[in-house]
Write a structure and sequence with these properties.
Rossmann fold, 2 domains, about 25% helix
């Protein structure tokens, strides 16, 4: 037997081994590849249905990732549950573009090695790592069996992706004919991937224009989806997660459709694994609800949230400065997107428009953000700058069409992400 080397040579070999182990440890990193911001349950209001409950049912949900990786883990959520949530079983698989499960890739989701778990009220629950390699832009099917009455779910109300709800029983491991479908996300808040090389996540803190209202359902045509595609195809040096934390109806300063951006920032931005950048793109709902006078089925809905201080340009700018300071304290870069035109929308007003113009001037000139994405310039009609171009809006003068969202994503300089 050879005697192990001693002296200076042994020290060099030990350092080399230690460096090799360190490199291996650094090679794998967990980042968030997909996300949906949890929302509290709501009662039915105007055209909006109330939050559903489930009991002894399986929910099958489809998500498209951004970054790929060698393993995945699922972040479940009971953030707004009034009682503990029982997960009886869960499974994940690759899916084809239509969402159909590729049965050969089906994996059980475990929690500390167990196939079921309790999620305490108010808490998230991260699954064990799952040995399922995923490519960039891969589609996953996530099935959850809920054996007990859940109460009103912690859902993300605007999923723009069909989810399938079974009749009774645990059907997580087999195809089923749904009892009903829905376009909400239920009890899932994120998918993380273990990247094999350098990887970062970009978090979008936004409202319905980021959530994808106006885009084609089941087609991944929200502007953050298109940004993820551009990064996957053109920015190969890093794996990029694009995490869409838009909530339809959300505001910077006030609760209502979800908690305000300021209130939810710790959970939905700063706690996101791998987060290196945040794009802040909201404020139009603050202006519309503060200054607008909607009529018809939306009137009662907006009146409910219109009380309190006006969302002046000064108040919103102070809110943006808070977001910037808190993100910078955690080492994130913050990009601000100008508020897009909403002339013709149900809650438009000239007073609100004046505040929008003041805010956008500040964004472009203040230097407060690390970069400014001028989404207003992309979508506005040059002949009527208070309105969106007809070809780029969804018909309500507020939300983008597929073409409008693609234009927003294409306007972003990918060199900003390093």
């Amino acid at each position: 037997m050879k005697t192990p080397p001693r002296g200076p040579l042994a020290s060099v070999l030990s350092l080399a081994l230690l460096w090799s182990i360190t490199l291996d440890a650094r090679a794998a990193e967990w980042i968030t590849s997909w996300g949906a911001a949890p929302e509290p349950p709501t009662l039915a209001a105007g055209p909006f249905p109330g939050t559903p409950s489930f009991s002894n049912q399986t929910i099958r949900e489809v998500v498209r990732l951004s970054a790929g990786g060698q393993r995945v883990r699922i972040l479940f959520t009971n953030a707004y549950g009034a009682k503990a949530l029982r997960i009886g079983a869960a499974r994940v698989a690759l899916a084809d573009p239509s969402g159909d499960v590729q049965q050969a890739t089906l994996h059980a989701v475990l929690f500390a090695g167990e196939p079921s778990a309790w999620v305490p009220p108010g808490a998230p629950l991260l699954s064990d790592p799952i040995d399922l390699p995923v490519a960039p832009l891969a589609t996953l099917s996530i099935s959850i069996y809920l054996p007990e009455d859940t109460g009103p779910c912690t859902c993300h109300s605007v999923g723009a992706q069909t989810a399938y709800v079974s009749g009774s029983g645990d059907l997580t491991d087999k195809p089923f004919t749904p009892e009903r479908t829905m376009l909400a996300r239920a009890f899932i808040a994120g998918v993380e991937v273990e990247a094999s090389g350098p990887a970062k996540s970009i978090v979008v803190l936004g409202d319905s224009i980021s959530d994808g209202v106006g885009s084609t359902a089941n087609a991944n045509r929200r502007w953050p989806d298109v940004l993820a595609e551009r990064l996957a195809h053109q920015h190969a040096r890093l794996a990029w997660g694009v995490v869409n934390m838009g909530i339809s109806g959300n505001r910077v300063l006030g609760d209502g459709a979800g908690q305000s951006a300021l209130a939810r920032m710790d959970r939905d931005v700063l706690a996101v694994p791998g987060a290196a950048y945040v794009i802040v793109f909201e404020g139009v709902n603050d202006l519309g609800i503060s200054y607008g006078h909607p009529s018809g089925p939306f009137a009662g809905y907006f009146k409910r949230f219109a009380s309190g201080n006006k969302a002046t340009a000064e108040a919103l700018i102070a809110g943006y400065r808070q977001i910037i300071a808190r993100a910078h304290a955690k080492g994130l870069k913050v990009f601000g997107a100008t508020i897009t035109p909403y002339g013709g929308a149900g809650y438009y007003s000239e007073e609100g428009e004046a505040q929008r113009q003041a805010i956008n001037r500040w964004m472009r000139s203040s230097g407060a953000f690390d970069a400014v994405l001028d989404f207003d310039a992309v979508l506005r009609d040059p002949n009527q700058p208070t309105q969106m171009q007809a070809a780029l809006q969804a018909g309500d003068h507020l939300h983008g069409s597929d073409a409008g969202y693609a234009a927003l994503a294409r306007s972003i300089d990918l060199a900003l992400f390093k």
